[in-house]
Amino acid sequence: MFEKREFEFEGDKYEIRISSDGWTTNIRVFLNNKPANGYSYSVELPIILDSKRGKLPIDPVEDLIKSAKEDIEEKRWDKYLEAINAKNT
Predict the structure, then answer these.
(1) Predicted confidence band of residue 88 (pLDDT cuts 50, 70, 90)
(2) pLDDT band at 89 (very low <50, low <70, confident <90, very high)
(3) Is the predicted pLDDT of residue 34 greater than 90, yes or no?
(4) Residue 8 in contact with residue 21, Cβ under 8 Å?
(5) What is the three-state SS of 6-69?
(6) The pLDDT value given to residue 56
(7) Of 6, 16, 21, 34, which is least packed with CB atoms within 10 Å of its CB?
């Protein structure tokens, strides 16, 4: 399975790529065909199945997609790098 969702932020077009090997679903945000940050997100099939059976009050894939987008919009990776650089100076 492979799916793409696009969104715009600060004039740039980002692409959220969702892929699955049948066991693990992976999510990553790209900008200009390169990873937009150092974050990647994944969830395994048993969790997804529990969600579909109603054992979880969330859709883990959709929640991770939402988190991936919010990480870009909140510039969390940039803040992380700033904190690391400040610590090392």
Answers:
(1) confident
(2) confident
(3) yes
(4) no
(5) EEEECCEEEEEEEEECCCEEEEEEEECCEECCCCCEEEEHHHHHHHHCCCCCCCHHHHHHHHHH
(6) 86
(7) 34
Which amino acid is present at 85? N
Q: State the distance between the two ends of the chain, measured CA to CA, in whole angstroms.
A: 44
What's the half-sphere exposure (Cβ side, CA atoms, 13 Å) at 75?
A: 7
How many whole angstroms separate alpha carbon 10 and alpha carbon 74?
11
Q: Tell me which H or E stretch contains 82.
A: helix 76-87
Q: b or e along 8-36 (b: 16 or more beta carbons within 10 Å of the residue's beta carbon)?
A: eeeeeebebbbebeeeebebbbbeeeeeb
Rg (CA), the chain: 15
Q: What percent of the chain has pLDDT over 90?
A: 91
